[in-house]
């Protein structure tokens, strides 16, 4: 599966609730009924989709995908992407080949940073547990922050985590495994014991196209307060934030409302959008930021929830 997507496992950690993999190109999380694969650069995430579905059936006994979220930020250089990722229209056409009645959205101005989203849900899923996700994409990071995520400043990923203050972002008791790349770059996966709650951070610290991303589904820390800690850690010039929440997620809905009602100190909100009352997007600029340098980093994310509708013998 990962060979097809053009990435590999660097190291992993496991609990009874979730398997966490730090990849050469971002992260993979596998829980009982969900797979989340994040990739970056010029990887081929969608090409791995048929294999993902087949593996879920062969090894998990799951014969139906009940929900799909595929999302990414706009690319600065789409021509450098594999053919199936060079336009969102091409990605939608590919996904529609697997999932009938999927929905595609572009959130944000076509003249600025924007967020592409493809969703699919079966009409009446067998179970619909509360679910929400906070994701923050940051660009134009502070230069002092960027230096922390280099081999010149830190010996390994653990030192980088401590010096950057990343341990202050996640709830107490969170288990972290991380990677500091050569000569620079950082990836971190984290998860809470006794749950399928996770967090992941990825940093591209080159000054010309600096980028950092944060994603979590935890519900222990207030998402608004957690967002403030993320911004304190990375000090970005611009950020794009999405809050996913299904209709049974009370905490997810509360997070959307909090981020709607409250300002982020030092930032000016430039765009807010809702999609089907399930996704809320916020686009913000640092009030005193200098001219923005467009980022080259490309990130894709796909999450699939599975359902077993037939009995499979052991």
From TrEMBL:
Pyruvic acid (Ser), modified sites: 26
Cofactor: pyruvate
One cellular component (GO) term of this entry: cytosol
Site, Cleavage (non-hydrolytic): residue positions: 25-26
Pathway in which this enzyme or protein is active: Amine and polyamine biosynthesis; S-adenosylmethioninamine biosynthesis; S-adenosylmethioninamine from S-adenosyl-L-methionine: step 1/1
Active-site positions on this chain: 26 (schiff-base intermediate with substrate), 40 (proton donor), 187 (proton acceptor), 202 (proton acceptor)
Catalytic activity: S-adenosyl-L-methionine + H(+) = S-adenosyl 3-(methylsulfanyl)propylamine + CO2
A GO molecular-function annotation: adenosylmethionine decarboxylase activity
Keywords recorded for this protein, A-Z: Autocatalytic cleavage, Decarboxylase, Lyase, Polyamine biosynthesis, Pyruvate, S-adenosyl-L-methionine, Schiff base, Spermidine biosynthesis, Zymogen
A Gene Ontology BP annotation from the UniProt entry: spermidine biosynthetic process
E.C. numbers: 4.1.1.50
Any Pfam family: SAM_decarbox
Family of the protein in this entry: Belongs to the eukaryotic AdoMetDC family.
Name of the protein in question: adenosylmethionine decarboxylase
Source organism of this protein record: Oesophagostomum dentatum (Nodular worm)
């Amino acid at each position: 599966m990962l060979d097809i997507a053009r990435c590999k496992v660097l190291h992993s950690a496991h609990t009874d609730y979730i398997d966490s993999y730090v990849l050469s190109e971002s992260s993979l999380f596998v829980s009982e009924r969900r797979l989340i694969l994040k990739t970056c650069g010029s990887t081929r995430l969608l090409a791995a989709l048929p294999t993902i579905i087949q593996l879920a059936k062969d090894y998990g006994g799951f014969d139906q995908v009940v929900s799909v979220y595929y999302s990414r930020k706009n690319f600065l250089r789409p021509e450098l992407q594999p053919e199936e990722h060079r336009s969102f229209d091409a990605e939608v056409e590919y996904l529609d080949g697997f999932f009938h009645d999927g929905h595609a959205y572009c959130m944000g101005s076509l003249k600025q940073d924007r967020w592409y989203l493809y969703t699919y849900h079966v009409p009446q899923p067998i179970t619909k547990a509360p679910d929400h996700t906070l994701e923050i994409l940051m660009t134009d990071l502070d230069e002092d922050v960027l230096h922390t995520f280099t081999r010149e400043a830190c010996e390994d990923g653990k030192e980088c985590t401590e010096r950057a203050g990343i341990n202050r972002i996640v709830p107490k008791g969170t288990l972290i495994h991380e990677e500091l790349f050569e000569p620079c770059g950082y990836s971190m996966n984290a998860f809470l014991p006794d749950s399928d709650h996770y967090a992941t951070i990825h940093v591209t610290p080159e000054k010309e196209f600096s980028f950092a991303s944060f994603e979590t589904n935890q519900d222990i820390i207030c998402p608004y307060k957690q967002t403030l800690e993320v911004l304190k850690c990375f000090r970005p010039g611009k950020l794009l934030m999405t809050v996913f929440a299904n209709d049974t997620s009370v905490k997810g809905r509360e997070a959307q409302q909090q981020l709607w009602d409250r300002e982020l100190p030092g930032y000016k909100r430039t765009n807010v959008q809702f999609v089907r009352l399930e996704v809320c997007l916020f686009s913000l600029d640092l009030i005193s930021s200098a001219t923005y340098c467009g980022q080259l980093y490309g990130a894709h994310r796909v999450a699939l929830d599975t359902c077993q509708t037939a009995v499979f013998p052991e």
